[in-house]
Automatic annotation (TrEMBL):
PANTHER family: UPF0754 MEMBRANE PROTEIN YHEB. The keyword Chaperone does not apply. This is DUF445 family protein. The lineage of its organism: Bacteria, Bacillati, Actinomycetota, Actinomycetes, Propionibacteriales. It comes from Nocardioides eburneus. The chain crosses the membrane at residues 15-41, 211-232, 238-262, 410-431. It comes from the Bacteria.
Length: 435
């Protein structure tokens, strides 16, 4: 019933050796995907040793080798691929998603500037007496000391009464110029670069189930690929074959694992079977998680205020605030303006107005740093980000999540190939063909 060559082959096969091959490749496939995921995410910071001269040598190495974490900085070691490319992912996330979510002005309007103004007034009002006293004591101590307490008190009350109008003008001016003052791309890139754990959190929080499934499929892929490897090995019976085929199995196992997570972005039928990438099939749920992280960790009122005052455009923000505050402070002097201006002289009076405006500018956005108030505003940003992320085309969503690591995936494939090679040699050592 069986061809003669098949009977001859079956008679000469070491069945124990043959049957252990797919089991062994399955275990190696599981280890490859498990360790590959660890390489993707950890460690968060570079760990290794600095090698003298490596940094200079790196400039003449092939570009792919220069991309290995640490090499370009002169170190031998490792940093998770995603943490190492956190800044790049931030840039792509802005280009592919956040830029499409809305302009800086839209984000600012979502924060309801009227409520921000009310909060600033509430926090700033108690500081007015100390601010006025500090500046007047510094700029014209004798005049301020000689003024009756009732006059000093009247000036402070006048400034406090003017405060809502002053702050309202400030928040309006910020909204008018927010596109020039706020750079979401730079803000996100810097935050991701300084906090790579946030990028890892994005993947982990909504994709842990899929990542665990990828590890499990590592065994399935490895086992299935091991079946033809075992047959070919039993036919050719060459000692070098298992290590060489192990390289192929290791490379393909990681390749299939990455494909399983991301491809295809939209559902399609292959040989009559509906297939859809694990990540993109849960885009709606992912959008909620992603938006929550962006709203609570990345684009927050607290960080917006910090960027406006301390970021690269902080000087422009201060100039805008001072320009808005100076005439308002001048008006706040009310009926005392003429008399004080005569006593001090126009130049000194204007300098005091400018000093008050400059001091107030630094304090005006301090309420942005209130974590509790920032958390209240985060709900509005979360809803905006979630809605717009759900509306992204599947291909854009996948690119946002994958583009930062796509050109570094070869490291995972190479890691799989190396482990496959080592697995092949280990199998020969544990289960020699002739045993």
């Amino acid at each position: 019933m069986w061809p003669e060559w098949l009977r001859d082959w079956a008679a000469g096969v070491n069945w124990f050796h043959l049957l252990t091959v797919p089991v062994f490749t399955g275990v190696i496939g599981w280890l490859i995907n498990w360790s590959g995921l660890y390489m993707l995410f950890y460690p968060l910071r570079f760990r290794g040793a600095r090698v003298p001269g490596l940094r200079e040598l790196a400039s003449i190495l092939p570009r792919k080798l220069q991309e290995v974490p640490g090499i370009a900085q002169g170190g031998l070691g490792w940093q998770g691929i995603i943490p190492a490319r956190a800044a790049k992912m931030g840039s792509i996330a802005v280009d592919k998603a956040i830029a499409k979510l809305g302009t800086p002005g839209e984000f600012y309007q979502q924060l309801q500037p009227e409520q921000i103004a009310e909060h600033i007034v509430e926090v700033f009002r108690p500081e007015v007496p100390a601010l006025v006293d500090e500046i007047m004591t510094r700029e014209h101590p004798r005049l301020w000391r000689d003024l009756p307490l009732s006059v000093r008190y009247a000036i402070v009350v006048r400034v406090q009464e003017q405060l809502p109008a002053i702050v309202g003008q400030v928040t309006t001016d910020i909204g008018t110029h927010i596109d020039q003052l706020l750079d979401p791309k730079l803000m996100v890139i810097e935050h991701f670069r300084k906090n790579p754990d946030v990028v890892v959190k994005i993947f982990r929080d909504f994709g842990q189930r899929e990542l665990n499934l990828m590890v499990a499929f590592g065994f399935v892929f490895g086992f299935l690929l091991g079946v033809p490897v075992a047959v070919v090995d039993s036919i050719l019976q060459q000692a070098w074959l298992l290590p060489v085929m192990g390289v192929v199995v290791g490379w393909v196992t990681n390749l299939l694992g990455m494909w399983l997570i991301f491809e295809p972005p939209a559902p399609k039928r292959i040989l009559g079977v509906k297939v859809h990438g694990l990540f993109p099939r849960r885009q709606a749920q992912a959008a909620e998680v992603y938006a929550d992280i962006i709203a609570s960790d990345v684009i927050t009122l607290e960080r917006i205020g910090d960027f406006l005052l301390s970021g690269p455009r902080g000087d422009a923000t201060r100039r805008l605030l001072t320009t808005a505050l100076e005439p308002a402070v001048d008006r706040a002097a009310g009926p005392y303006r003429g008399a004080v201006r005569v006593v001090l002289g126009p130049e000194r009076f204007d300098r005091i107005s400018r000093s008050v405006a400059e001091e107030a500018a630094d304090r005006t956005l301090v309420p942005f740093q209130d974590p509790q108030f920032s958390k209240q505003q985060a709900d509005r940003i979360q809803r905006l980000v979630a809605r717009r992320t759900k509306e992204l085309p599947p291909a854009d969503f996948v690119e946002m999540m994958r583009a930062a690591i796509k050109e570094d995936e070869w490291m995972l494939y190479a890691h799989g190939a190396i482990m496959g090679l080592a697995g092949g040699f280990l199998h020969l050592l544990l289960f020699p063909p002739g045993s």
